[in-house]
Amino acid sequence: MTFLGYGRGSVSFILALLVISVSWSLVLVNPVRADGHLNTITIDGSINPASADFLIRAIEESEADGAVALLIELDTPGGLVSSSQDIIKAMLNAEVPTIVYVTPRGAWAASAGMFITIAANVAAMTPGSSIGAAHPVGIGGSGGGGGGGKSEEGESGESGGGRDISMEKAENLLASYVESIAKHRDRNVEWVVDAVRNSVAVGADEALEIGVIDVIAPDRKALLEAIDGQEVEVASGVVVLDVAEAAIQPLDMTLLQKIFNFLADPNVAVILMLAGLGGLYIEFNNPGLILPGVTGAVCLVLTGFALQILPFDWVGLLLMLVGIGLLIAEVFVASFGLLFAAGIGCFLLGGTMVFEQPEVSDLTVSFWSVLVPTVATLGLFSGVVVLMVGRSLRLGQQSGVDEMIGSIGRATTSLQSSGPGKVFIRGEYWNATTDDSIGEGDSVEVVAVEGLRLRVKKKASSSI
């Protein structure tokens, strides 16, 4: 028997195709349940391994607990390229929609923060916020290579015309990386590449106008209402956001994540290193104080953790240590300020280099708010020590055997050249000898110290 000219096998085949098509459409367009909850996290600071671990775990937890989406409220000056790559990889492969919201007013998504924003399913900003400035940072906080793109020489290694090949390489890699992300999320490719190559930045209104973000919202409630019902693509297909009425579920960093997030600030690392060295220096010069030594050791241990998190340059670190060593040497060597000046210069130069690796990070030590005040404090401390040492050299001896010479006292017995007697000097009784004839009660002056016996002479005045 046939049905409309088709055999029984053909009908079964067509029905199977219909079932597969309907099932596939249900997979691709699968509205997220409205009775679910919305997980939220806040990234306020640099992008580093701690914040990356926090965000990635938030994505995993949101997938596991059936959250309708993950809202990431972002305010960052940038951070490690490797950490931002880990975050973006997790976002692009997430089974849960990710929403990045640059907030509050005045917040910014700079550098690595821009990469994360454009990688989200929904990119949003609050009025008054900004995004961009993703050019890799060079030594001293400046961009490299004249701010241009890749030249004809490419990466041949030729460095004519003041080109910085390492900076150019970092720029090209980041530009290519961010271009692929923008294409995947259907955002303004030309602008995001320009943000890397020329460090351009825009405010929320312009970002929306040129297609860098999807929506501007004054607060979280307005954002969720604006994107409610929007279709977004996750790893398994297309889902429809149903977030307007979702319950808000905040996720917080663990204590360990908070500690490492604090240590992953280059400014904190530099301050901890100086505090550690200063504490040990005080302890070595004043053994037994305990507290400075313990504090210094703890600070240096924390500095070690920070250097494990942050990519640092050995040359910069050694220059900083040499600078500190020269400042300490100035206390013991009469260099007329030459060691002091060299120490200040080495410390400043090392501080600007120690975390400068544009290929992996755009984190830097703040020159004016950290390095200059630190150097000023070190300089003031060294100057005070040198001044005190100089003044002490001009003073007479205040202790020891020789300090007794010239002291004035009183004879408590008569003294003759034939034998010793007793004198009272500085609250103590001493055995004394003399070449004069000194009567009891006469004033005497110490002229020499011979073991535990004083040699004295008669003082012209009979009273003290």
Question: How would you characterize this protein structure?
Answer:
The chain is an alpha/beta fold. The protein has four domains: 1-30; 32-148 and 167-254, 2-enoyl-CoA Hydratase, Chain A, domain 1, CATH 3.90.226.10; 258-394, no CATH class; 402-458, Nucleic acid-binding proteins (OB fold (Dihydrolipoamide Acetyltransferase, E2P)), CATH 2.40.50. It is built from 14 helices and 16 strands. The protein has helices at residues 8-28, 49-64, 81-92, 112-119, 165-184, 189-198, 204-209, 220-227, 255-263, 266-285, 291-309, 314-332, 338-353, 367-394; strands at residues 37-44, 69-75, 98-102, 108-110, 122-125, 130-132, 201-203, 215-216, 231-234, 237-240, 247-250, 408-411, 421-425, 428-434, 443-450, 453-458. Strands 8-5-3-2-1-11 form a six-stranded parallel beta sheet, sandwiched between helices. A five-stranded mixed β-barrel has the order 12-13-14-16-15. A three-stranded mixed beta sheet has the order 4-6-7. Helix 3 (81-92) links the parallel strand 2 and strand 3. Helix 2 packs antiparallel against helix 9. The longest helix is centred in the last third of the chain and has 28 residues, at 367-394. The chain is elongated and about 115 Å long. Mean pLDDT is 80; it is low at 1-34 and 138-161.
Q: Which residues form runs of ≥5 with pLDDT under 50?
A: 1-34, 138-161
Rg: 37 Å
What is the assigned CATH homologous superfamily of the largest domain? 2-enoyl-CoA Hydratase, Chain A, domain 1
The helix tally amounts to: 14
Largest sheet: 6 strands, parallel
- CATH architecture identity of the largest domain: Alpha-Beta Complex
Helix and strand content put the structural class at alpha/beta
CATH class of the largest domain: Alpha Beta
Biggest sheet strand line-up:
8-5-3-2-1-11
Number of strands: 16
Share of residues in strands: 15-25%
Shape: elongated
